[in-house]
Structure formats: structure tokens, C-alpha cells
Write a structure and sequence with these properties.
heterotrimer; B: 1% strand; C: mainly alpha; two-stranded antiparallel sheet
């Protein structure tokens, strides 16, 4: 039973933290609730039936994902550090290899401009995702064949034909 | 804290036999090297260089596998790295087969990437990473390692499926594959957890030992574990009813990726399936064999029957690969040495045939993988007789015609299942082979029929996206917009709709010769020759598969 | 040298491949020379093999080699294996030798044909197939060769397929052969069932462990195969029609080599035949009756090649008579001698036909010895050889068979002696009509036109001319061997029996006749032969028309064709019509179509589940998981 005690404590701590967050926000947030009119968008006065989609730069997701990678690296480093002496040189080499692998990925991200905000600056030149010619090809389906109603290039026998 | 420290002081470092994982290390190293190169170079790394690096890496891995083969033959099979990795003929065969498949795929992809104007080394990096995952699965002797391989294999494949980002289907395919793949991975992982609960280990050897030694206390746990593991594998090998993703994904993915998926992903998954069930869970045969039986029967029938109606060749090949999965499952169902060797033989021959077939499809499909309809193959024999001949050979091989490798492959698995008295399954297999022969021959016939003569027109095929069907049926209906997914919105645009109704034959007649890059020629030629030469003279290949089995632990 | 045995087969095969690829470009005459060179090279290799084989001093000289393993599935273990022993070596030597000569001859004979290269392509493939048949170390190899020669024979018989008769004759040959092949295949299946192997050596080693009834059935099935291939009663009519092919084909395939494949096969399986007296008796009776029937028909034929065709049937009958008596060496002896003199006769007749610009009717020849002296001299040697006039080869070979028949089965010996007289008679008739008498080749209206015989295009007949050297050289060589092949009968170290006898071992019948009896029999044979020759010359040298001797019954080959037509042909045609119009269209097509419709329909229904929506796919997956778990629950409770 002793072995499970830390887990129990961790569980209680987690619950406490969550509860505290809620309680704290209740206390700290402004007391006055906004009216319905105040939260409504007011561009042209029409009451929207659905929530308007909120736009979010995809860069945030990218950064979050990159964070996770290094997060996990650290997760590995902790237990390694605890038993560093028992593992000896073998452990050191293994962790260096692991770090190097992650570092290569890091280099790749940098070279693709994943960390630069503002206008995209790529250290290695790439091909733009969309050019005028590719856009024309997307819309008209030329060259290469007609486009279905769904804007999908037709491969013969897809439903656009059957319908 | 005291007991933590106590356990820490007794760490035994595993002895690492690096030769046993050398091909995997080479493959991963190649991927990292290419990634590093493409990040550090100031210029865009050229596709040719990437292909060269990939092919050389594959070759190096294959050579390492041959070295392994000699070692295994000399020293016998063993497990290494604390029993987590199996080092036997079976694993070596996968270490050899996967690099071969990767090398061929890289050569096909070379032409594809140049045609599509995709630059950078990411494609090859992902392909190598994915291949290394399949190789890990082939060598894994621990369920956790199996899972590791499965994820390395799959995650790279999800991205590869989406690689043609200018093509909507490609993204759709990737998303479907990713979501369903994640679900199956989760189920698989749950199966591992239950298996640990039932046997107290995730190590295959220890599991087998445990199960052989004593009756399992909580039988239900073990049965549930087997069920969930089977589902995970069945998804990867696209056995019915876990096959739904494969037609859409094969059709949407770039054609070389479809070939890679159909060969390497299946090889890895089948290798792990065979090792986990036939070897490790052999004592629990009564529990899992009926499930395999049903999966095999359903895959055989559904794969063959639905393929009949397909008008898109890539879709048809997807169903055909479901059908093939059914055949390989026959070998699993037999669950003895003969079954394993026949399944391996089938895997090897099938891998080569399917990569060759998709190579031909890649060149025929043209830019953006558009022209994959059956009618596009019309008159191919007149325009490009050699290409048509090669495709005919590969299709006949898949149909199991005599004097191709496919014949003996089908014969072997059926024989294996007959010898274990699975007569019903054997009959189902033979019926499905007969049905399957029809749709392979249909493509062959289409190629050899002149333009404007053969054909019953497009059949009522299953749509890739039903939204398109709905959208096309209600053009311009504003009220319909909310009910259909966003991609059908353009249906509201007049004009495009009319274009869609253009008869396909006009498109076909306008076609001239499709350009075939030299590297793709090499692949097509290799695959066709392999199919014929080893079909006429199968002895070395059969030997190989048999030896790979004998060393199996 | 023996390790390159495969070269014997590979060389003609190479010729075939090269001709397939470049035949048209090579054209005349290089295609012909290439083919000839390949077969000649094969012959030289065969001589080398022969010398090597002589060096082996084992009780049975032999050499076997597995080129590769074809299939190793279950108990069935198929090798592409070669087996060289004195028996197959003899066959290889004379097959390659005679083929080389006939290839050479064909260069002249086929001169000007539009498909010159194609002809040699078929010939090369034929030689390769025949060698596979002979050298195969198991029944499957033999069967592959057996089918190969049959196919080539079909192509070559109908080589001039624009002529309807040629196309029909090719079809006929093919069908009769297929009937025999069914026997071969059934024999193979039964052999595998009983002996668990198809390798000759293994089969022979296990003869004692198989019941004699099974062996008899296997042998009888093989005899059926032989009937087809070697044109024995009742499957003989195709050989006469096969004369539609070019004459070198008739010489090579339908006299010297392919038709003797049956003889070779029965010799090869001698331990089986030895173990089954019933089958041996059947073979002997079949041989004797065929010899007699063939000879009677040959007496009344008017087409020069038809006479020779029926003569071939008759001579093959002798060989089977010998096999049925257990006298395998005698059968081989006649086979070799026959290959020489029959090829010679065919090539001679080809020379005659060539000289007469396509005329094949004996009644429109005559006095050709004046115009074609070389052809005449060589033909005469062949004539006297087949008539068994001493000291030519036919006398020794046929005498050997008759001696053994006398000791083993006296009744059949009687038939054999009578047939020998007939043989001498009809060959003399042929020679008299063609080479003696008056010039008739200019006549516009022939005496008693034979509807079956070929006539030259009616019109101005030019005087016959002697053939060119490429055609006469093979004649000389064959004539030399036809005259001297009797030397094989001497009792020295290099005699045929010292060479071949060890192969047959205890299966061989030995007649133990005292020397006196042998002398008497030899004398009798001589008298019979000379009597037949004298009768033939006396009756036919000055007259061409003797209806009493050419009764329709014989001229129409005992009405066998008509009998087959009435008994089998017409009813099966009617059955075929019924099947095609009623059974196939309505019953079978209906069933297949509705089944196919059912399958496609099922496919459409299943395809409906493929909606394209991710949620449905996930649902299907979960459904699968639930089903499998449910099954596992049943296992837990009731398992």
C-alpha cells in the first residue's frame, strides 16, 4: 500500500490545483456579467445563428507541437539524471544520441523558418505553396482534365460522372 | 525513497548486439543524415540526390541484412537486447524485404516528385523513417517494441499520404488514415496493457513461457487482450471489417505512397502478427484462430467482390490488396511452419508485384494523379506496348496465373490451410481467386482493347466523397449548402458542373504516350522480371522463405 | 563432356529463338543455314557425349543430371533432369544426325517458299522438343517433349495452311495425338499415385512394390499414348493425311523421329512392360495387326507419299511386335535402320516431286531413272533395304525381329512373314511405277485419277530435272547408312546389342534359337523378300492399271476414316450442336450470367457501406471490435 501513497498524494494535489484555479478565477475576475448585446458581433446588425469561426494563426499550433517534442525530451532526461551514475558511460552515450536526434529535427525546424514570426523567412528557399498557375489549375482543372462539382479533379468514374 | 534507491542500485545494463539491429540503425541513420543535409544546405537539395541517398541507404541496410543472414545461419536464432529484439531468419527476411521495397519505391517516387514539382528531402526522410518502423516490427520480440515500430511506421505514413498538398484527396486520405489509425493504435495499446495484466509481461518469449507453464487465472483478460491486439493488426493489414480506410487512402495518396503502404506497411504488420500470434500465443490457438478465420474469409470475399465494380484502378488495387491480405491470413490461420513460410513467400512476391503495379499506375496517372480511371488504360498496349506488357504480367501475377510468382504463392497458402483441414476456407480462397482473376483481367483487357471499343462506361462507383455526389445532384441549391460538407460548395458554381459531365473517352483519346522516367523503368522491369523469373524457377525463393521459418523461435 | 548434355537441347532451341527474333530479316537462305548449323553442332556434341559414354565401364553406362528443380511441393518433386544411357544416346545420335541431313535437304526443297524462315524455326523447335523427350529423366520431361513434337507436327503438317486439305490434315493429326496424350496423362497420374514419383529410376526401383494390375493399367494407358503418336491401330489414319506437309517434314517427323517416340517410350519403361505380360501381349498383337493392315493399304495407294506413309505405319508395327515379344534391342535396331531407309525414301520421293514440279501421282510418273539418275540409284538402295533384300540393313533388322517373334509368339511371326512379302511387293510396285516403264508425266489426263493424290497444276509439263546438290548430298549419305546399317548386327564389341542390351537387363527376351534355325529363318526371309520384289516388278513394270489389285477397300484404307466418321464424327457433331445451342446458351450461360450478376450485385451492396464518411468507418471498426469481443466472451463462457 505504501507504494501507492505518492500516487494518491499526486491525485489529491492535482484535484486541489484544478479546484483552486476555478475558485481563484471566480474571485479575481470582474464581477459584472456582460449583456447579450455586448458580446454580440456588431458588423452589420444581423444576429448570427452560429458562433463565427475564430481565426487563429497556425503558428501557435506549430510552436505548441515543437514544445511537446522538447518537453518529452526533458521527460526522458529526468529519470536518466536520477540514475546517471548507475548507467555510467553507456547511459551518457545513449542520451547524447537521443539528444542529437532531436537536435537534427530542431535544425530542420529552424531551416524551415518555424520559429520566425512575421513574414516567413526561410533559410532554405522553398517553392511557394500556391502560385498563380497552380491556382488557375485548381479552379479550372486545366491542364489535366475537368474538375468535379466539388472542385476535385476528375478521375474517371468518380461520382461527378455518374451523376 | 529508500526502496527506490535500492532498485536503482541493481540495474543490469542489457548487452546490445548491434549487428542484430544494424539494418534498422542504418535506415534511421540515413533518414537523419538526409534531414540534416536538407536543413544545413543553403540550396534546395535536389530530388536526385535525395533518391540516391535513399537507395544507397536501402542497399546498405540490405547488405547488413545479408550479413545478419549468414550470422543467423551460423549461430542460430537468438534474442538480444534483454529479449526485446528477436534475431532469427524471420526477422532477417523482413530486414531484407523492407529495404528492397523502399529502394524500389524511392526510384518510383523520384520520377513522381520531379513531375509534381515537389522539392526537398522530406519525402525520402519520411519514407526511410517509415521503413525503419516496419523493420522494427519485423524484429520486435516485445509488444512494446511492436508498438514502437507500429507508430514509427504509421506516423510517417500519415504525412506521406498527405504529401501532395495541392490535391484535396491527398489531404482527405491522410486525415482519414490518421484518425482511424490513431483509434486502432489506441486499441492496440489497450490490448498490450491487458496482455500485461493477463501474463505479467509484454515480452513475447516470457508470455509464451507463462502461458505454457500454467493455466491463466483470468481467462477473460487474455481473450480480450488477444481480441484487441488482433484488431490493431487487422487495421494495419486492412482486413475486413477494418478495411474501410484503405480504398479511400490508396486512392487519395500519391501513387508511389499507395504502393509503399500496400507493401511495406503490410509486411511489417504481418511480420508482427505472425510472431505474436503464431509463435507466442500458439498455446491459445483456440481463442484466436476462429477470429483469423472470419477475418480471412471476409477479406477474401469482400476484397474480390467489391473490386469487381471499381472503375478507378487505384481503388481496385486497394480492394485487391484487401483480397491479398485475406490470402496471407490463410497462412496465419494454418499456424504452423508451413503456414508461416507460405505467408512469408506470399509477402515477398506480393510486395514486388504491388510496387511494380503502382509504379505503372504512377506514370499512367500523370500530373496530380488524375488519370487513374480504368478507361485511361484503354489502348495502352498500342501506345506503349512494353509498359502494357509489364503491367499485364504484374496483374496476372496478382491474379495467380501459372508461371508467375503469384501462382505458387496462392497455391502454398491454400495448401497450408488444406493440410490443417481448413477445407471451407480453402474453398472460399479458391472462389475468391477466381472472382479476383476477373478484375485483373479486365484491366489487362482494357489495355489491349483499342480506344472506343471496350467499355461499359463508368459504373456506379462508390464516391470518394459523397458530398460531391450530393453537390452534383443539387447544383446551385443554396439550401443544400448547409447540409453538405464544405468541399461541395463549389457545386454552386455553374459551368464547372458541366465540365464534369464531359465524356471520359474524349480525355482518353487526347492522351498520347505517357513519359516514363528511366528510374521507373528500372523498377517496372525489375518487378515484372522478378515475377516471371521466380514464377518459372521458384526454388530459391521458396528455400529462402522456408529457411526464414525454420529459425523462428 | 557429359556435363554439357544440356547443350544438345540448347543448340536447336537457340536456333529457334534466334529465328523467332530475326528469321524474317535473315530470310533465304541464311535462316536455313543457321538452323542446319545449330542441329549439326548439336550432332557433334552428341558424338562427343557418345565417346564419353563409351568410356564409362559400369554394368549400365549412364549419366544423369538435374539441371534445376522445377517444383518441390508436397510429395511432388519435379526436376528438369537429363538421363543419358545407351538407349537415349542411340536416339540422340540418330535424331540429331538425320535431322541435320534433312535440314540441309530442306534448304533446297523449300527454296522460294514465302515462309522459308518460319519452316526452319519450326524444324529447330521440333528437334529441341524431340531431344527433351528422349533425354528427360522423368515422365514429365518426356511429356513436355511429347507435347512439343506434337505441336510442331501440327504446325508443320498444316504449314501450307492456305490449302484446305493441309489445314484439315493438321487438325486431324493434332486431334488423334490428343487422344493418345490423354492416355499419357492418365498414365502419369496413376504412376504418381502408385509409385509416388515420376522419375524413371525411382519408378523402376519400386516396380516390385506395386500390384501387377496397376502396372498393367499404367502400361495399357501408355500404349494408348503410343497408338496416337506412333499411328498404330486404331489411331493410325492421321499419318497418311499428315503427308500434306512438306516432304522433308514427312521424312523427319512422320518417318524417322517423332513417330518412333512411341517405340522409345515403351523401351524406356521396359521394366513396367516386363512386369505385365498382358500389356506385352497387347503391344505385340497391336504391332502385328498394324504391320499387316498398313502393308495391305500401301499396296493400293496411288500417291507416292501415301504409299510411304502406310509403309511407315506398317514398319512401326514391326517395332511394336518386337517390343511385345520383349526383343527391345531388335526394335531399336529396326528403328535406327528404318530411320535411315525411310528418310532416304521420303527424301527421294521429295526429289521426284520436286523434279516433277509438284506431281505426286504414281500413275503420272514413269521412266524417271533416265532423268534423275542420282535419285534413282539412292532410291533403289532404300527400296531394296526396306524390302529386306540381303545384305542391306532391312534384312538384318527385320530378320532379328522375326527370329524373336518366331521364338516367342509363332502366330504373330506368321503374320510378320506374310507382311514382309507384302512390303517387298508394294515397294517394288512403287519403284516400278515411278522409275521404270514409259514416260507418263506429260499426260494431261491421268489413268484412273485418284481423288486423294496431289496433281501438279494442269498445264505445260516440263521435263523432270535432277535436284541440286544440297538435296542429293543427304540422299547419298542416307543411302550409305541404309545399305550398311546392317553392320550393327555383327557380334563385336561395337555391335548394337553389346551397346544397348545392358540397359534392358533382365527384361530382354533372348530367343536361344540354335544356329541352324537361324539360318533357315534367314533363308526364308530372303526367299520371301526376293519373291515379293519379283512379283512387284513383274506385275507393275509395264502396266499401270490393275483394278483387281487395287480394290477400293484397300485404296480407302479399310474404310477406317468413314467408320470413324459414321460412328463418332457425326453423332458428336450433333451432340456439339445441341450443346452449343441448347445447353451452353441457355443452361450454362444463363447460370454463369446470373451468378456473375449476383456477385456484382453483392459487390454493389457492400460498396454502399463505403460511404466516404470518417464517422461511418470508425463505427464499422468499433462494430468489428465489439463483435470480436463478443466472440471472446462466448469463448470464455463455453470455451
Amino acid at each position: 500500500m505504501d507504494a501507492y501513497l505518492p500516487i494518491l498524494i499526486l491525485l489529491i494535489l492535482g484535484l486541489l490545483f484544478a479546484a483552486l484555479s476555478f475558485v481563484a478565477s471566480t474571485f479575481l475576475a470582474p464581477k459584472k456579467k456582460p449583456t447579450a448585446a455586448k458580446i454580440a458581433p456588431y458588423e452589420c446588425g444581423i444576429v448570427p445563428e452560429v458562433e463565427p469561426p475564430s481565426r487563429f494563426p497556425v503558428r501557435f499550433y506549430l510552436v505548441a507541437m515543437i514544445f511537446i517534442i522538447f518537453d518529452i525530451e526533458v521527460v526522458f532526461l529526468y529519470p536518466w539524471a536520477v540514475i546517471f551514475r548507475q548507467l555510467g558511460s553507456f547511459g551518457l552515450v545513449e542520451v547524447v544520441v537521443f539528444a542529437a536526434v532531436v537536435f537534427v529535427a530542431f535544425l530542420f525546424l529552424i531551416s524551415n523558418g518555424a520559429f520566425s514570426w512575421g513574414p516567413v523567412v526561410r533559410l532554405t528557399p522553398g517553392v511557394p505553396a500556391r502560385t498563380s498557375s497552380s491556382t488557375i489549375a485548381r479552379i479550372s482543372g486545366r491542364p489535366g482534365g475537368p474538375v468535379t462539382a466539388a472542385g476535385v479533379p476528375v478521375s474517371t468514374g468518380t461520382p461527378g460522372q455518374a451523376a | 525513497m529508500t526502496h527506490l534507491a535500492a532498485t536503482a542500485s541493481t540495474i543490469h545494463l542489457p548487452h546490445v548486439n548491434y549487428v542484430s539491429i544494424l539494418p534498422i540503425l542504418i535506415m534511421m541513420g540515413g533518414a537523419l543524415l538526409l534531414l540534416l543535409l536538407s536543413s544545413l544546405l543553403r540550396r534546395i537539395i535536389s530530388t536526385g540526390v535525395c533518391t540516391a541517398i535513399t537507395v544507397m541507404t536501402s542497399a546498405a541496410a540490405a547488405v547488413a541484412a545479408i550479413v545478419q543472414w549468414d550470422q543467423v545461419l551460423a549461430n542460430g536464432a537468438q534474442t538480444t537486447i534483454a529479449g526485446a529484439v528477436a534475431y532469427d531468419g524471420f526477422s532477417v527476411l523482413i530486414q531484407l524485404l523492407v529495404p528492397l521495397a523502399l529502394g524500389l519505391t524511392a526510384l518510383v517516387a523520384d520520377g513522381y516528385l520531379k513531375r509534381e514539382g515537389v522539392v526537398g528531402g522530406e519525402f525520402q526522410v519520411l519514407a526511410m523513417a517509415s521503413a525503419s518502423g516496419a523493420m522494427v516490427m519485423g524484429a520486435a520480440n516485445d509488444l512494446i517494441v511492436v508498438f514502437l515500430g507500429l507508430e514509427i511506421l504509421s506516423i510517417a505514413l500519415y504525412v506521406l499520404a498527405a504529401f501532395n498538398h495541392r490535391r484535396a484527396e491527398s489531404g482527405e486520405a491522410a486525415l482519414k488514415y490518421f484518425v482511424l489509425g490513431s483509434v486502432s493504435s489506441a486499441i492496440f495499446l489497450y490490448g498490450i496493457a491487458l496482455m500485461y495484466g493477463a501474463t505479467g509481461s509484454t515480452n513475447l518469449a516470457k508470455m509464451a513461457e507463462f502461458l505454457a507453464r500454467r493455466a491463466v487465472l483470468s481467462n477473460g483478460l487474455l481473450l480480450a487482450a488477444m481480441a484487441l491486439l488482433l484488431v490493431g493488426f487487422a487495421f494495419k493489414v486492412s482486413a475486413v471489417p477494418f478495411h474501410m480506410w484503405s480504398p479511400d487512402v490508396y486512392q487519395g495518396s500519391p501513387s508511389p505512397v499507395s504502393g509503399f503502404m500496400a507493401s511495406v506497411a503490410k509486411a511489417g504488420a504481418f511480420a508482427a502478427l505472425l510472431r505474436v500470434f503464431v509463435s507466442s500465443l500458439a498455446t491459445q490457438r483456440l481463442g484466436w484462430q476462429p477470429v483469423i478465420w472470419v477475418l480471412a474469409a471476409l477479406s477474401l470475399l469482400v476484397g474480390a467482390i467489391v473490386a469487381l465494380n471499381q472503375q478507378d484502378v487505384k481503388r481496385m488495387l486497394a480492394y485487391s490488396s484487401i483480397n491479398h491480405a485475406g490470402f496471407i491470413l490463410l497462412g496465419v490461420d494454418a499456424a504452423d511452419a508451413r503456414g508461416i513460410s507460405s505467408a512469408l513467400y506470399y509477402l515477398v512476391t506480393y510486395t514486388i508485384m504491388v510496387i511494380g503495379t503502382f509504379a505503372v499506375v504512377t506514370v499512367i496517372a500523370g500530373r496530380q494523379d488524375r488519370a487513374t480511371g480504368l478507361l485511361e488504360f484503354r489502348g495502352l498496349a498500342r501506345r506503349q506496348p512494353v509498359l502494357a506488357l509489364a503491367l499485364a504480367i504484374l496483374l496476372l501475377g496478382q491474379a495467380g496465373a501459372p508461371f508467375t510468382t503469384g501462382f505458387l504463392a496462392k497455391f502454398n497458402v491454400i495448401e497450408a490451410v488444406v493440410l490443417t483441414h481448413g477445407y471451407t476456407l480453402a474453398v472460399i480462397a479458391m472462389v475468391s481467386a477466381a472472382v479476383a482473376a476477373f478484375f485483373y483481367l479486365r484491366v489487362a483487357l482494357t489495355m489491349f482493347s483499342p480506344v472506343g471499343e471496350f467499355g461499359d462506361g463508368p459504373d456506379d462507383d462508390v464516391p470518394l466523397d459523397p458530398a460531391a455526389l450530393v453537390g452534383a445532384a443539387t447544383p446551385g441549391a443554396a439550401s443544400g449548402v448547409t447540409t453538405v460538407p464544405p468541399r461541395a460548395w463549389s457545386a454552386a458554381m455553374p459551368g464547372i458542373d458541366e465540365l464534369a459531365d464531359a465524356p471520359p473517352s474524349e480525355v482518353v483519346e487526347a492522351r498520347g504516350k505517357v513519359p516514363v522516367p528511366p528510374a521507373t523503368w528500372v523498377v517496372i522491369g525489375f518487378c515484372a522480371l522478378f515475377t516471371v523469373v521466380f514464377g518459372i524457377y521458384p526454388a530459391p525463393l521458396v528455400d529462402f522463405a522456408q529457411h526464414a521459418t525454420l529459425l523462428f523461435i | 563432356m557429359l556435363t554439357v548434355t544440356w547443350l544438345v537441347i540448347a543448340l536447336p532451341l537457340l536456333g529457334f529463338v534466334v529465328l523467332v527474333a530475326t528469321g524474317r530479316r535473315l530470310g533465304e537462305p541464311w535462316a536455313g543455314w543457321l538452323a542446319t548449323a545449330m542441329v549439326s553442332a548439336s550432332f557433334l556434341v552428341a558424338i562427343g557425349l557418345y565417346l564419353d559414354l563409351l568410356g564409362i565401364k559400369a554394368p549400365v553406362r549412364s549419366y544423369s543430371e538435374n539441371l534445376w528443380t522445377w517444383l518441390d511441393v508436397g510429395g511432388l518433386n519435379l526436376h528438369a533432369g537429363l538421363y543419358v544411357d545407351p538407349l537415349s544416346m542411340t536416339m540422340v545420335l540418330f535424331v540429331t544426325g538425320v535431322s541435320a541431313l534433312i535440314h540441309l535437304y530442306s534448304i533446297g526443297y523449300m527454296h522460294g517458299d514465302k515462309d522459308f524462315a518460319k519452316f526452319f524455326l519450326y524444324l529447330n523447335l521440333f528437334v529441341a522438343s524431340m531431344l527433351i523427350l528422349v533425354l528427360g529423366s522423368n515422365m514429365v520431361m518426356t511429356f513436355i517433349g511429347w507435347e512439343g513434337v506434337g505441336t510442331c507436327s501440327y504446325w508443320l503438317v498444316s504449314f501450307w495452311f492456305e490449302r484446305n486439305t493441309a489445314a484439315v490434315a493438321g487438325k486431324k493429326a493434332f486431334l488423334y495425338n490428343r487422344l493418345g496424350d490423354v492416355g499419357f496423362m492418365l498414365a502419369m497420374f496413376l504412376t504418381f499415385e502408385n509409385f509416388h514419383s515420376l522419375d524413371y529410376s525411382t519408378i523402376f526401383a519400386r516396380v516390385d512394390s506395386v500390384s501387377s494390375l496397376n502396372i498393367t493399367v499404367i502400361c495399357l494407358l501408355l500404349v494408348v499414348a503410343v497408338m496416337g503418336k506412333s499411328a498404330q491401330i486404331p489411331l493410325f489414319p492421321w499419318l497418311a493425311d499428315a503427308m500434306e506437309g512438306p516432304t522433308p517434314v514427312s521424312a523427319l517427323i512422320h518417318a524417322a523421329t517423332m513417330v518412333t517416340a512411341g517405340v522409345y517410350l515403351l523401351c524406356r519403361v521396359h521394366p513396367l512392360l516386363h512386369a505385365s505380360p498382358t500389356a506385352s501381349l497387347v503391344v505385340a498383337i497391336m504391332g502385328a495387326v498394324t504391320a499387316f493392315v498398313g502393308a495391305t493399304i500401301a499396296c493400293a495407294q496411288q500417291d507416292i507419299k501415301k504409299v510411304l506413309a502406310y509403309s511407315t505405319i506398317s514398319q512401326l508395327g514391326y517395332m511394336f511386335l518386337a517390343i511385345g515379344c520383349g526383343a527391345y534391342t531388335a526394335a531399336i535396331f529396326l528403328m535406327v535402320a528404318h530411320a535411315f531407309f525411310k528418310a532416304l525414301l521420303f527424301l527421294g520421293s521429295g526429289s521426284v516431286i520436286h523434279g516433277l514440279h509438284g506431281e505426286q501421282d504414281l500413275k503420272r510418273m514413269g521412266n524417271l531413272r533416265q532423268y534423275m539418275p542420282i535419285t534413282f540409284i539412292t532410291f533403289a538402295i532404300g527400296w531394296l533395304a526396306i524390302a529386306a533384300v540381303p545384305p542391306l540393313s532391312g534384312f538384318w533388322a527385320k530378320g532379328d525381329i522375326l527370329d524373336n517373334a518366331f521364338a516367342a509368339r509363332p502366330v504373330l511371326w506368321g503374320i510378320g512373314v506374310f507382311t514382309a512379302a507384302l512390303t517387298a511387293y508394294y515397294m517394288s510396285r512403287l519403284t516400278s511405277l515411278a522409275f521404270f516403264g514409259s514416260d507418263r508425266w506429260g499426260q494431261k489426263h491421268p489413268v484412273d485419277p485418284d481423288p486423294w493424290a496431289h496433281h501438279a497444276e494442269v498445264g505445260e509439263q516440263r521435263a523432270p530435272v535432277e535436284s541440286p546438290l544440297v538435296m542429293t548430298l543427304p540422299l547419298w549419305i542416307l543411302a550409305f547408312f541404309a545399305a550398311t546399317a546392317g553392320l550393327l548386327a555383327t557380334s563385336g564389341n561395337f555391335s548394337l546389342s553389346a551397346w544397348v542390351d545392358p540397359v534392358f537387363g533382365s527384361s530382354l527376351f533372348s530367343n536361344h534359337l540354335p544356329a541352324g534355325d537361324l539360318w533357315v529363318l534367314g533363308l526364308l526371309d530372303t526367299v520371301v523378300a526376293l519373291g515379293g520384289v519379283a512379283l512387284g516388278i513383274w506385275l507393275w513394270v509395264s502396266r499401270t492399271d490393275r483394278p483387281a489389285l487395287e480394290i477400293p477397300f484397300l485404296r480407302n484404307a479399310w474404310y477406317v476414316n468413314e467408320a470413324y466418321d459414321t460412328l463418332l464424327g457425326r453423332p458428336s457433331t450433333r451432340l456439339a450442336h445441341f450443346s452449343a445451342e441448347e445447353v451452353d446458351l441457355k443452361v450454362i450461360d444463363g447460370a454463369v450470367n446470373s451468378l456473375a450478376g449476383l456477385v456484382r450485385g453483392a459487390g454493389r451492396i457492400v460498396a454502399k457501406t463505403q460511404t466516404g464518411y470518417l464517422r461511418n468507418y470508425a463505427l464499422a471498426m468499433v462494430g468489428g471490435v465489439v463483435l470480436i469481443l463478443a466472440f471472446m466472451v462466448t469463448r470464455m463462457w463455453w470455451g
